[in-house]
Every structure is written in C-alpha cells, then in structure tokens.
Amino acid sequence: EKDDENEAKVLKFTADADTIMHGVHVDDCADAYVALARTALFGIGNNVEEEPNSRRAAIAGQVFNTPDGEVGAALAAEHGFRGTQFSVSAENMPGDVGYLSSAFVFGYSQWVGSEKMRAWTGWRDKRPLFSEDIHTYRVAYEAAKDGGSENVETIRKRMRGDWGG
After folding, report:
1. What's the pLDDT tens digit per position in 71-105?
2. What does the alpha-carbon distance between residue 74 and residue 26 come to, in Å, rounded to a whole number?
3. Burial class, 43, CB count within 10 angstroms (exposed 0-12 / middle 13-18 / buried 19+)
4. Is 50 left (phi over 0), alpha (psi -120 to 50) or beta?
5. Nearest to 133 by CA among 93, 95, 77
C-alpha cells in the first residue's frame, strides 16, 4: 500500500546515491586555483623548507580537484523532507521536475578531493561547503528569486525540462 503522505516527504533524485558532487564555494574554488598557479609559477607553497623548483616539479602533470559534500541529504534537511530516495525512475519523479534535468544536475560524479592540493599549496577553504551551510545558500537563492532574477527563472525552467530559449 502506497503512503502518499510519507511519499511526498521524501526528496527524490534520479541519480545513484553514490554519485559524488563537490560543494566548495565558488570563491574558495577560485582561491584554490590561484594557490595552485602560484605554486606552479613561483614555487610558493606550503612547505617553505623545500626549494621553489622542487615544489614546481612536484606538481607538474598532477591532477587537482576541490572538496565534495553530501548535497542530497543537506537539500532534504533544509527543505523539510524526512529523507532522500535515489535512482528514482522517470515515472516516479514529481511532475514538476524533469527527469533528464535532474539527471543532468545530480547524475554525474565529480571525482573530487582536496588533500593533495592542501598539502602542496597550503590552500584552505574559508567558507563552509554547500552541504555544511545550505541554509545560507538557500536564503541567497530565495532573495534572488524574490528579486525576479532571470537566472533563477531560467534554472527553474530547466529543472522542469524546458531547455528552450
């Protein structure tokens, strides 16, 4: 027997529960790339005992990424859902959420980690991850929405599956 009342209190995602999403603040992400560039160009990094040339050589050819977070659980908690459900089929998604739009936003793993960047460049994020302070991001979104932001309306349309002009 389907329990519509409890079913409505679950935030549904088309993505698999193991999908990895990063949630670093855009300003911290920019700072991370500046720290990486400073280390690469000038040898400025975390370990001052090392020679600048050895720091530059150490990062050559490396792949660096920034932090991840538990975005789905944070979204559910912030919006008053009692839980999350992942890998939801198209027919079981709410009517106002486009299946492909949800898959596009939440369905692509972003293999991220910041330990190497932190150790080699000295970079540290200054702001909480999206999943750690989602309320602040929500308040900013609500203010933009209430202010008639075109960007907010465009994203709302795309989440409904309307990718037109």
Report:
1. 778 888 888 888 888 888 878 887 777 667 677 67
2. 18
3. middle
4. beta
5. 77
Q: List, in sequence order, the alpha helices (H) in the chain.
A: 4-7, 26-42, 52-59, 71-78, 99-106, 115-121, 134-146, 150-159
CA distance linking residue 8 with residue 30, whole number of Å? 38
CB 152 within 8 A of CB 141: yes
Residue type, 17: A
β-sheet bridge partners, residue 68: 22
Distance of CA 136 to the CA centre of its chain: 14
**pTM (whole model) above 0.70:** no
Q: How far apart are CA 121 and CA 36, in angstroms?
A: 6
Give the phi and the psi of residue 10 in degrees, each rounded to 5. -110, 130
Radius of gyration of the chain (CA): 20
* Total residue length of the chain: 165
Distance between CA 105 and CA 14 in Å, rounded? 10
3-state secondary structure of 112: coil
